[in-house]
Design brief:
Blueprint lengths: L2 E6 L10 E10 L3 E4 L4 E8 L1 E6 L3 E6 L2 E5 L5 E5 L4 E9 L3 H6 L9 E3 L4 H16 L2 H25 L9 H10 L7 H7 L4 H12 L3 H19 L4 H7 L5 H12 L3 H8 L3
Antiparallel strand pairs: 1-2, 2-9, 3-8, 4-7, 4-9, 5-6, 5-8, 7-10
Helix pairs in contact: 2-3, 8-9
């Protein structure tokens, strides 16, 4: 027995950032074979088990509850074992997908996301499906918001249950240690050695996790803290510079202006709450 419900919508011109263009739910016993979609898709396996096969990851097992991503113009096959599975799906597109990919919230290399809690994800799928039925500009925006939450929630759940590496510290722990010392003079090679890796490996891992090399990440942390101090204290600019690990106030001001398009004093005038 197969029950199917599906809705398709053409995206509104104003929804360029993220647009949901289809949604459905079904209980199926058949496979999707060697298909390509023109858009992105997320498939939520509520109950049951089966497989996903792509050129990037090969054939991988899936056991619900789990969510997996499909990518545009990439051949894929997937489907349940003999008992079938219950699935929900959503089609989407938009420029915001570049950020999802850059931040590795969705990934072709790791498309399957086992879920610890199904309930919240189900509610979000229900919301965006109902929004597509309503088919108004406000409902389209609501559907996009629900999908955005699905992306974040799935990434959070996978992050909680990601296996701890057996060799070396987890990169998240290393980055947290880096954050705590970012305002201090920091020898990157020595810091990398403290955590059992070469400078090149440390740079590669930070770049993959954060999107910035270690020195660029340290500078961002320093300037973010400087902005906090400028907005919440009466400290002189040279004191703020010193507190974020930059001894030369003129260099700090020039660097701040290059990155923020305003001087430290102008930033304070804009954002200080008196």
């Amino acid at each position: 027995m197969k029950t199917t419900e599906a809705i398709y919508r053409s995206p509104l011109a104003a929804m360029g950032g993220l647009a949901v263009i289809g949604s459905g739910k079904q209980h199926v016993a058949h496979w999707v074979k060697a298909r390509k979609l023109p858009s992105y898709a997320a498939v939520l396996v509520e109950h049951g088990s089966g497989f996903l096969e792509t050129d990037v990851v090969g054939r991988k097992s899936i056991k619900g509850p789990a969510l997996f991503w499909l990518f545009p113009n990439r051949q894929h096959s997937y489907g349940p074992d003999v008992d079938g599975w219950s699935e929900r799906w959503v089609l989407f597109e938009g420029s915001l997908l570049r950020d999802f990919l850059r931040l590795r919230l969705i990934s072709e290399q790791n498309p399957i996301m086992p879920l610890r809690s199904l309930d919240r994800v189900q509610r979000l799928f229900n919301t965006l499906h109902a929004d597509l039925i309503e088919d108004t500009p406000l409902a389209s925006a609501s559907a996009a918001s629900a999908l955005h939450q699905v992306v974040i929630l799935a990434a959070q759940q996978v992050g909680r249950i990601r296996p701890v590496p057996t060799v070396g510290a987890d990169i998240a722990e290393i980055i947290e240690a880096f954050r705590k010392r970012a305002m201090q003079p920091l020898d990157m090679a020595a810091f990398a050695a403290e955590h059992g890796m070469s400078p090149a490996t440390f740079r590669r891992k930070v770049l993959a996790e954060i999107g910035l090399p270690p020195k660029g990440f340290q500078l961002r942390l320093r300037l973010d803290h400087a902005k906090e101090l400028l907005a919440t204290t009466d400290d002189k600019v040279e004191i703020v510079a010193s507190k974020v690990g930059i001894d030369d106030a003129f260099y700090f001001s020039r660097l701040f202006h290059e990155r923020e398009n305003c001087t430290p004093r102008e930033f304070r005038d804009r954002y200080r709450r008196s």
